Each structure stands twice: as structure tokens, then as C-alpha cells.
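#help-structures
NK: newbie question, is this the right format to request a structure? protein is HD domain-containing protein
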Amino acid sequence: MDITLSEDIDAEYLEDVADILTNKEFLALNSYRHHVATTRLMHSINVSYISWLTAKKLGCDAQAAARAGLLHDFFLYDPREGRPSRELQAFCHPKVAARTSGETFEISEKERDAILSHMFPLGPLPKSREAWIISGADKICACAEVFHITIALARDGRVAVSPA
């Protein structure tokens, strides 16, 4: 599976997340439907890019926001077919995503916390401004996706995923 990104996407953003966007295991998120109208990969890219832009505007750690935004839903199972614990998906998947992210990539403690707390208020209280940004961006993207509104990088073919 390969990903092609539009030339108008900021090069600094792409540099911050290149190792993730070229990882075959991460790109497998494209095979999971998410929030009715998108894939988990596209949702994660949107959360990441909105988080990166917001963090830059607010003077936060944009790289940590971009990386944690990409990885916040990095779990490789379909919750409709079962999950790895008896917890509800809202509580289970941040833990699985944090574990999978740590096993696959080098992530900072700030990135790990943002992944674990992105479901606030259903999960733990975010500990950093970047974690708050990701939690908010996730909710904005989820609402848009449920109502079939294309936002951020989902618009105008700015991201294309194709089989390798």
C-alpha cells in the first residue's frame, strides 16, 4: 500500500510524520471503516494535520501533536468483530493504540499521554496542551465524518492511498 500526498501539504508537517506515513503496518488502517464515511487512516491523518496546524498557531510542540494525532487510533482490529478486552471500545482502544504505537515507533511520553487521553472525558484527563488539542481535533473530525463532511486533508484528493 502506498500513500500519495498533495504538494500543497506543508513540507514541515510531512517531515515530522514521514516515518509513520511510510510504515506498512500503519497504512493498514486504510482497510478499516471509521465513523461511517471514512477510513481509520484518513481520520487519523485529518486529526494529525488539524492538531499540527493548531499546535503551531498556539506555540505548542507541533511535531508531538502531529505524531500523536496520527497514532491516536493505531489499533489493528475491527471493533465490530471483537476487541482485545472486555472494556468498551471507547476505553480499550486508546490503550491498544498507545501500546501498538510504542512497539512500532519511538514515541515520547507526551505523545503516549495524548494517545491515551484522546477520548477525554471518557478517559484520563489530558496532561499537556498537545493532548488537549488532539482530543478536540478528534471530536471535530469525528463529527464531520459522521455527517459526511470532508474536511482538512480528506478534501479535494489531497491524500490518495493505493495498493502497492
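mod (FA): yep, format's fine, and the C-alpha cells are attached above. The longest helix spans residues 40-58.
NK: thank you!
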